[in-house]
Design a protein that fits this description.
146 residues, alpha+beta, 6 strands, 23% helix
């Protein structure tokens, strides 16, 4: 008997979650800015780089936001063509970026933090952080999107 109660509760919860999911507005995927998650990979002289970016809801209807996380320098000694003694097969650095654009004023902000695992002249590990603010040219943006 307890099994029937539990299965009934699970089936009821599942039906309610499906009902709420069906009530959500369908996104227009023909809009190139409507893609919410992206992944990327590349190769440089220091190895393989992997990247994941995800747009998020800023809570303000006129503001778009995105976070990007990167891992750099994977298998740098085996696959890269850098011939210094600092290149290894382990990860060289991590990078985090946060972008936001106010679509009414076309102003943009960016926070960029890069954590380097390789030693330099000052420290065994280091971190660079920068913040940018600027205005986006609407004509250039519309030309790139078409």
């Amino acid at each position: 008997m307890p099994f029937l109660r539990i299965s009934f509760l699970f089936s009821l919860a599942f039906q309610l979650s499906n009902l709420s999911a069906n009530e959500k507005e369908v996104q227009d995927m023909s809009d190139p800015l409507a893609v919410y998650t992206q992944i990327g990979a590349g190769s440089t002289n220091k190895g393989i780089n992997l990247k994941v970016g995800q747009a998020y809801d800023t809570g303000i209807t006129t503001t778009a936001g995105m976070n990007v996380i990167e891992v750099k320098g994977i298998y740098g000694d085996a696959l890269g063509w850098e011939s210094d003694n600092k290149t290894t097969d382990s990860i060289d650095s991590f990078r985090f970026r946060n972008f936001s654009v106010d679509l009414t004023s076309m102003s943009a902000k960016q926070l960029d933090a890069s954590y380097n695992l390789n030693a330099n002249l000052v420290a065994d590990e280091s971190m660079d952080i920068s913040y940018s603010y600027g205005l986006v040219d609407q004509m250039q943006l519309s030309n790139k999107l078409t």
